[in-house]
Amino acid sequence: MRRFLFAAALIVAGLTPGHTQTTDLQLVLAVDTSGSVDERRFELQKQGYVTAFRNPRVLEAIRSGALQSIAVTMTQWTGPALQVQTVPWMHLRDEESIKRFAATVEDTPRRLFFGGTSISGAIDHARTLFPQNPFKGKRQIVDISGDGSNNRGRSVNNARDEAVAEGVTVNGLPITVLEPDLERYYLDNVIGGPGSFAIAAKDYENFAEAILRKLIAEIASNGDGTFTRLAKSSGEPQFPGLNIVYLAPLGNPAQAPWKHIVAHQTEGPEGSARNGAREQAKNPTRRGVTLWVETDGTVYWAVPETAVPTHGDGANRSDNKFVDNSATFRKVLKDNTLGVEFAGNFPDVAKAPTEAQRRAWTILVRVLQERYDIPADKVYAHNWIDYKDSRYCEGCSLGEQARALNYVPTRLRNKTF
After folding, report:
1. Which residues are CB-neighbours of 111 under 8 A, at least 6 positions away?
2. In whole angstroms, what is the distance from residue 33 CA to residue 145 CA?
3. Angle, in degrees to the nearest 10, between helices 355-372 and 396-405
């Protein structure tokens, strides 16, 4: 019987018996079901996870990984010895598998009700689930959501430290409706490991937005700090899934003035990004941009990151005449905005970016956001700040893609919703 149940679990997860697969991430979602969580709050919490996983941003984040897949399970927890795995390990790699996971969460009833709040017990239980996972993840994360501090069982600090010693990162999603200082408590006592962070929800009604932000940050980052260190490094760093040709090496990002990112499209044929970047390198401050993206997805970093090419000053004209740029008027300018040019929409200017360009942008925009601490709402399409051409909306699909990914740079992650 035990062998049959194990085989059935593998099939639910998306594997056949005897087969294992490596993923970018193993993620345990540990959900608070203690006495303070009444039925309404539990349903809001559960539906928050369902809504978050059904958001297309999650699939975008998964596809940004080297292996483009993650393994996820869910548990409910309350007292020191009261935990239960309610959703088995499942392999998320495409829209169908994500929908299946969300449906499973939605159909799973509450299994625990009372017993105190033992975050330490939840962490200890979550650690036991990783060896049972048929998927071998490059990273292991325990994601604790709850509305109270540890009041049962052993020290939460000891539980966290032991998990971190095993290579597990503990992240937190404190719900501060009952304990206003709970976010500080999670930051000081619960989270741990390289790249760990907490994102707080003010109440259960805001839980879905908070968990979506948290999932994006967990999935899209490599979690061990390597991505951040690489994004902040000097020289000519390369990133998995992205090919960058440096015509000028990187220096110290703190010396660069960039606060915004604008996606442009140029009406040139295949090869024009490469040629445009080379011409830009000869005269860094000429009309143009810092980065150029070829139709095959190759990125050309054309000039030193402290150089200021002439672009973006369209925000100084046509104020609200063709597009509502009241929020960016005389604010999103060449002096503070990093330009990225996508080539290839010739002879049809309305032609969409290539699939290779979109894949490259998924990684590149995160690199730029992480390097310069730029949030997703500071990524723009050209047409959002300045009207250009009635035949098409320049950069709009790229701007929408970046906003949908909604990547949160490491330095900006501890935020309340």
Report:
1. 33, 76, 84, 86
2. 10
3. 60
Asked whether the predicted pLDDT for residue 128 surpasses 60, the reply is yes
User: 313-349: buried (b, 16+ CB within 10 Å) or exposed (e) per residue?
Assistant: ebbeeeeeeebebeebbeebbbeebbbbbbbbbeeee
The CATH T-level fold of domain 18-224 is Rossmann fold (3.40.50)
What gap in Å lies between CA 186 and CA 61, rounded to an integer? 25
| Most confidently predicted of 3-17, 94-108, 138-152, 215-229 | 94-108
The CATH label, of 3.90.226.10, 2.60.40.10, 3.40.50.410, 3.40.80.10, for the domain at 228-412 is 3.40.80.10
228-412 shares the fold of 18-224: no
Q: Is 131 left (phi over 0), alpha (psi -120 to 50) or beta?
A: alpha
Amino acid 400: pLDDT? 87
Question: CB-hemisphere CA count at 13 Å for 33?
Answer: 21
pLDDT at 322 (0 to 100): 54
Q: How far apart are CA 96 and CA 104, in angstroms?
A: 12
Secondary structure (DSSP) of 48-71: HHHHHHHSHHHHHHHHTSSS--EE
**Mean predicted lDDT score pLDDT of the chain:** 84
Q: How far is CA 349 from the centre of its chain?
A: 31
The domain locations on the chain are: 18-224, 228-412
Share of the chain above pLDDT 90, in %: 41
Where is 90: in which H helix or E strand? strand 83-92
